[in-house]
Write a structure and sequence with these properties.
Chain lengths: ~400, ~180
């Protein structure tokens, strides 16, 4: 085993004899973020092996998709990553549009950027707040939820739902934004900006938080790629890869004309477009702190993107287009598309025979599924108290893993 | 057509291992014989000019029509298709590999078809293959730990097969 064992085992007094013990963590454990069961093989305080058991939230989404038309399946995508429903809607809508060869209007493109980037902020806020909670920091959770609530209010005004939206759909969105929404959104962004700095004070530079996260669960870049980790987990390990910039053209064209810098450490430096706190000396690239910090930067990045999108949306003439018919016949073929969701790359696939409106096969490639698979490597030889810190830093959502 | 040199390169290296391709599809794909799958994948990952270092997804598609009336009209032979979506982070490009399998091994219903596991090339394949085994019923030979992942260990059948019959009850729980 690696060096972490050596440093960790010093904690145990040498004259205390410990036996190996299997500890069941979950499926009803608050810091497993849903119904995840981990079997920990422990020797005293040190974890020698972690076996994740998933599937408690399996709802046969893919099988259901084989019996519905693509637009009817949109509500099921909401319920995968239920913290980022808009991003899921978009991923599936774009995949079907790729199969149909459909382009949305310019106005709709900007509308989509506003909506998914707002949802990214909301999702990261919950992820970061809950992460603080995992580590015993209770206050940041309230700060995060207060702001997230305002975003949910905006979504409620736009589509009537607060969690499972089914708003972005194949061919556009169900309706345009209501009058006055853009003003409300600008107001929110102005109020939210100072809160980001507060969060940096509460967590990023908090000495206890740094102690709990720095140099814990270090994920080397090669291992991250080998395990298919994506999103902030991959970028936290220093891999410069963001589908919004590097993905397929069918997806990246949505961000044409937008200026943003990928949140990753390049040559030992994070982007410097804003004033971010310095990286603490204890932190090692790929540890929990870096994964957390990448999300913090992405919140700022999304704020900038929403500002740009609001401006473009307001100045673009035309309509947002209309969704396809519920029973539109699908052409023969198959399409696969990955989009950058808050938790990583979410891929959808659709296979159609070409003689009905119902696809032969739908597939959802979940980002959290791959991000979780690396946990058995990260949790080797760590202390039991660090297991929630590592799981929390991966920011998993069980609805997406089990589908 | 951008993939053309790649197919020539692969054919030169693997000959009969590359059994077909379609470059006109929305996502152009290359068909690989099951026996050649692992060497082809390893080559695609390790060749410095290709570097397909990320396996995004493994999907099994069941081409089968359970309704005998409709089955006469379909334009395919019953088979299973495994689709591998690869991505190269350094080159920012994707590649789709396909492997055609019979629905059942030796045409004996219940005998799962076999294909070599690529978990020795990409570790992420370990969980993806467990999922395909669980839901679509494909046996991956050489997999270190092939057991169900989403469904309970004692579940019967593979739900994403088109001829799957939902059980009447499960441990005393009525299901239908």
């Amino acid at each position: 085993m690696d060096s972490q064992v050596d440093s960790a085992s010093q904690v145990i007094e040498l004259d205390v004899r410990t036996d190996e013990m299997l500890v069941n963590m979950g499926p009803q454990h608050p810091s497993t973020h849903g119904v995840l069961r981990l079997v920990l093989r422990t020797d005293g305080e040190v974890v020698s092996e972690v076996i994740p058991h998933i599937g408690y939230l399996h709802r046969c989404a893919e099988k259901i998709g084989e019996n519905l038309t693509p637009r009817q399946w949109i509500p099921y995508t909401d319920r995968m990553d239920y913290l980022a429903g808009m991003n899921m809607n978009l991923g599936w809508a774009l995949t079907v549009e790729k199969l149909l060869g459909l382009q949305v209007t310019e106005k709709c493109r900007h509308l989509r950027v506003i909506i998914v980037e707002l949802n990214r902020i909301a999702s990261h806020l919950l992820g970061l707040g809950a992460y603080g909670l995992d580590l015993g920091a209770f206050t940041p959770f309230f700060y995060c939820f207060r702001e997230r609530e305002k975003i949910l209010d905006l979504f409620e005004a736009a589509c009537g739902a607060r969690l499972t939206y089914s708003y972005l759909t194949v061919g556009g969105a169900t309706h345009d934004l209501p009058p006055g929404w853009v003003k409300r959104c600008e107001q929110f962004l102005r109020e939210f900006q100072p809160v980001v700095d507060e969060l940096h004070t509460l967590l990023t530079t908090n000495a206890i938080f740094i102690h709990r996260t720095a140099n814990i669960g270090v994920l080397p870049a090669e291992m991250a790629i080998d395990y298919g980790c994506t999103g902030p987990v991959l970028r936290g390990s220093g891999v410069d890869h963001d589908l919004r910039r590097d993905g397929e053209e069918f997806y990246t064209q949505m961000y044409d004309g937008y200026a943003f810098e990928v949140a990753v450490m390049r040559d030992g430096q994070y982007p410097r477009d804003h004033k971010y706190p310095p990286v603490p000396s204890q932190a090692v690239l790929g540890d929990c702190w870096h994964r957390f910090f990448v999300r913090m930067i992405e919140i700022q990045q999304s704020i900038d993107l929403v500002w740009q999108a609001l401006d473009k949306y307001s100045t673009t003439r035309g309509s947002i287009g209309s969704p396809i018919k519920l029973n539109q016949k699908l052409p023969k073929g198959e399409a696969y598309l990955e989009t950058e969701c808050p938790r990583g790359q979410m891929g959808f696939m659709i296979v159609s025979d070409g003689n009905s409106a119902i696809p032969r096969r739908v597939r959802a490639r979940s980002s959290s599924f791959c991000n979780l698979s690396v946990v058995k490597e990260l949790c080797q030889g760590v202390l039991i108290a660090d297991v929630p810190a590592i799981i929390g830093s991966l920011d998993i959502v069980m609805g997406e893993i089990d589908r | 057509m951008a993939n053309h040199p790649l197919i020539e390169q692969l054919q030169q290296k693997f000959g009969q291992g590359i059994t077909g391709w379609n470059l006109e599809a929305i996502d152009p794909w290359i068909e690989v014989a099951p026996d050649a799958l692992v060497p082809v994948c390893r080559y695609l990952k390790e060749e410095p000019s290709l570097q397909f270092n990320m396996l995004n997804c493994i999907t099994a598609v069941d081409y089968f029509e359970p309704d005998p009336k409709k089955a006469k009209k379909v334009d395919f032979e019953p088979h299973l298709e495994l689709v591998y979506h690869l991505w190269s982070i350094p080159n920012k490009r994707s590649l789709v590999l396909k492997v055609m399998l019979p629905r059942w091994k030796d045409d004996q219903v219940g005998q799962l078809p076999e294909v070599p596991s690529v978990s020795c090339v990409w570790r992420t394949a370990e969980w993806h293959e467990r999922e395909v085994y669980d839901l679509s019923g494909v046996m991956f030979t050489g997999h270190p730990d092939l057991r169900r992942i989403l469904l309970p260990e004692d579940w019967e059948g593979h739900p994403l097969r088109k001829d799957y019959q939902f059980p009447l009850e499960y441990h005393g729980i009525r299901c239908q």
